[in-house]
Design brief:
A: 160 residues, 4 helices, B: 256 residues, alpha/beta, Rossmann fold, 11 helices, 38% helix, globular, disordered C terminus
């Protein structure tokens, strides 16, 4: 850092500074293949969604992903979070199984039963695919920057 | 009260550092915080200024033995031994081991210990996943998604904004993750030096860039935690049903 800049920052009481935030968020975003590879990964973008895109718009430039032996983003059964009744969403879903606490809980940590487990979304894995689903639109763009710019324009233009 | 996991699918992302600084920030915000080191040969204590010769009391140690292990308002416990017990998962399931009460538990889990993360996740209200701006780390995202991210928020760690790929990665993840990206913590030599000096960062470099970022991160986590606890988690995190709605593509970030 230049000495005069350091003196100025000290006078201003600023010990650190941030890089400038560009008005155009995508101006400084380049099309790194790793970004595109992530967006095309069937574990990020659900396969069925990609199939639907392909079916709806034949000739799309997206390459059909290789089939996976295992269904992506399936919820592993043991990871299903159990939700106490007080926290359970109002639905007709069957009541989750909550392990019975021992008659006299011996808790080396807090001396009480496990903390109420809040479930965010649709379970520990359910619906997670759409966490990345914001990109689940036909992706004709050949690079990330143009894709992001196009989507941003759509939002700002009120098309969305 | 609640359990917060710190786990990254990739090593070297500063998970222990972020767990420690977040624990300190939450303690300063008035929470009764216990930091749990679940890593064998973990380094969590280093970020509290405790050297390798000082062993942390076990999670189930008697109160008189563990009373002294408190730094900057955060109680420190070694939980690796308990997690290694064959009946650890059963103890959680039966309630023998729990994370209730008024305490807030911040757990530091080694990146390679995905199994332990999976065991603890159902009992956690929140998971913080640090990522670094490297292709190796971003490559872990699909696998992490497979493991379930419904409770997961992300932090960009060790960010050097003078580097192209770091800037692009932050921008890309900001769009990809939206509000799930809680913020970014800049790469800062002061973190390394503070550890070498066996001092907490706040004492060694109170004006460092990384400390300012971690304070902001702690505030973001605290706000999110209150939302999760108040709202029962239903609406606390940004919705994951954004689907194909371009209106949700703006990816506004809380702290970055």
């Amino acid at each position: 850092m230049r000495a005069d800049a350091r003196v100025l920052l000290e006078r201003l009481g600023k010990s650190d500074f941030r890089y400038r935030e560009f008005v155009d968020r995508f101006a400084d975003l380049e099309s790194w293949p790793i970004f595109e590879a992530l967006l095309k990964d069937p574990r990020i973008m659900p396969q069925e969604e990609m199939y639907a895109i392909e079916a709806a718009e034949p000739g799309d430039s997206l390459r059909q992903p290789a089939p996976r032996a295992q269904a992506p983003l399936a919820e592993p059964a043991p990871r299903k979070a159990h939700v106490p009744a007080s926290h359970a969403p109002a639905s007709d879903a069957p009541a989750p199984v909550v392990p019975a606490a021992p008659a006299v809980p011996v808790n080396p940590v807090a001396g009480v039963a496990p903390a109420p487990v809040t479930t965010i979304g649709e379970g520990a894995g359910g619906g997670v695919s759409s966490l990345f689903g914001r990109y689940g639109r036909p992706e004709r763009a050949q690079n990330i920057r143009s894709l992001l710019q196009r989507l941003s324009d759509a939002v700002e233009g009120g098309d969305a | 009260m609640a359990l917060i996991l710190f786990h990254s699918p990739r090593g070297g992302t500063g998970t222990s550092f972020l767990a420690a600084t977040t624990a300190i920030a939450l303690s300063r915000a008035g929470h009764d915080v216990t930091a749990l080191d679940f890593a064998r040969n973990g380094t969590l204590q280093l970020h509290f200024g405790l050297g390798p010769g000082e062993s942390l009391p076990a999670l189930d140690a008697p109160a008189d033995e563990s009373a002294s292990a408190s730094v900057q308002g955060v109680a420190l416990r070694n939980a690796a031994g308990m997690a290694a017990q064959p009946d650890f998962a059963q103890g959680l399931a039966t309630g023998e081991i729990g994370f209730g009460g008024d305490k807030l538990f911040v757990a530091d889990i080694a990146s390679g210990d995905q199994h332990l993360r999976d065991i603890l996740l159902p009992y956690a209200v929140l998971e913080i996943c640090p990522l670094t701006a490297t292709a190796e780390c971003l490559m872990m995202l699909p696998a992490a998604n497979d493991a379930g991210l419904a409770k997961t928020c992300f932090v960009m760690s060790k960010v050097d904004p003078t580097r192209r790929f770091a800037r692009h990665s932050v921008g890309f993840l900001r769009e990809l993750l939206g509000d799930r990206l809680l913020g970014q913590v800049r790469r800062d030599e002061a973190v390394i030096e503070a550890c070498a000096m066996l001092q907490p960062l706040g004492r060694y470099a109170p004006h460092s860039a990384a400390l300012a970022d971690t304070i902001a991160l702690g505030e973001a986590v605290g706000t999110l935690l209150e939302d999760v606890l108040d709202e029962g988690g239903e609406d606390a995190l940004p919705p994951d049903d954004t689907g194909a709605n371009p209106a949700n593509l703006s990816g506004k970030n809380r702290a970055a």
